[in-house]
Amino acid sequence: MTTHDAYEHENEDGAPDMSTGTTEPDGENNADAAIPELVIISGMSGAGRSTAAKCLEDLGWFVVDNLPPALIPTMVELGARSQGNVARIAVVVDVRGRQFFDNLRDSLADLDAKQVTRRIVFLESSDEALVRRFESVRRPHPLQGDGRIVDGIAAERDLLRELRGDADLVIDTSSLNVHELRAKMDAQFAGDEEPELRATVMSFGFKYGLPVDADLVVDMRFLPNPHWVPELRPFTGLNEEVANYVYNQPGAKEFLDRYTELLQLIAAGYRREGKRYVTIAVGCTGGKHRSVATAEKLAARLASEGVETVVVHRDMGRE
């Protein structure tokens, strides 16, 4: 099996598939029952919805696949009557239920009115990666009809555009294998205590393209490139000598200090707006020296201020 073959294994008949590691709701009415926590998983077909759902199932979530959006509030009510057996529910919403998407906003408004803690996770991927995955499993895209795979992908992007904008967490799986996606989900949802804000600090190379899941982008190309220093060229920003070279340049430390202050303001606003995840993309030309060193320092600053932080070096090693 290739790294991307396992992303999507969904029922061929389109019937809802319910799976759980916990006891099913018993339907007993309990007005004082706690309202379950809810995660809605959606995104592009082939981008990894099934893998993300399986990860939450392994973490003890009650997972419902292909549930019409109009039934989400009902599912939450059933969970509330389960006497605590269903405390966390994950619902997968995809294009097989596209006729119900008009009901999604009403359902979300209903959940907000009932003060349900809910998050939307959106799985994204590039057209090239999606085409490769569909071709590898020799299956048509759900929306391509008589057209090509790329036609189905374009139609799906248009359908999901508004939902993507409302997402609390966007994960780009273009360059991720199944294990890396599971690691990202584990980093966001594992553990008993929910941190106030989680940050992913990602280094990247501009010549390989911008990360599509970035909330904030930092351009470090204003600093001299260690690539042109022969004794530093073979190393990366993880090397102490490279990091010292980068942050001994005029303006480097001042930039880090001021950008950290800016992030403090942004983080406070995210918390007020209920946003729990942020991806900060730090770029340089090749994603090897300046961006890596800066990502490490920026992540250390955020961690010291109580922000749970994950560091990802997307393009390090590609040269």
Keywords, please?
319 residues; alpha/beta; 6-stranded mixed beta sheet; 10 strands
Characterization of the model:
There is one protein chain. The chain is α/β, with parallel strands linked by helices and 319 residues long. 36% of the residues lie in helices and 18% in strands. A six-stranded mixed sheet has the order 1-3-4-2-5-6, with helices on both faces. Strands 8-9-7-10 form a four-stranded parallel sheet, covered by helices on one side. The longest helix has 21 residues, at 252-272. Mean pLDDT is 84; it is low at 1-6 and 8-32.
Describe this structure in a few short sentences.
The protein is built from nine helices and ten strands.
Instruction: Name the structural class.
Output: alpha/beta
The best one-word shape is: globular
Radius of gyration: 21 Å
Total of DSSP H or I helical runs spanning 4+ residues: 9
- Helical content band: 25-40%
- Nearest-integer average pLDDT: 84
Strand coverage percent:
15-25%
Strands of the largest sheet, in order across it? 1-3-4-2-5-6
Q: Main beta sheet, described?
A: 6 strands, mixed
How many beta-strand segments? Answer: 10
Q: List segments where confidence is low: pLDDT < 50 over at least 5 consecutive residues.
A: 1-6, 8-32
Termini separation: 27 Å
The H-and-E topology, N to C, reads as: EEHEHEHEHHEHEEHHEHE
So what's the oligomer here?
single chain
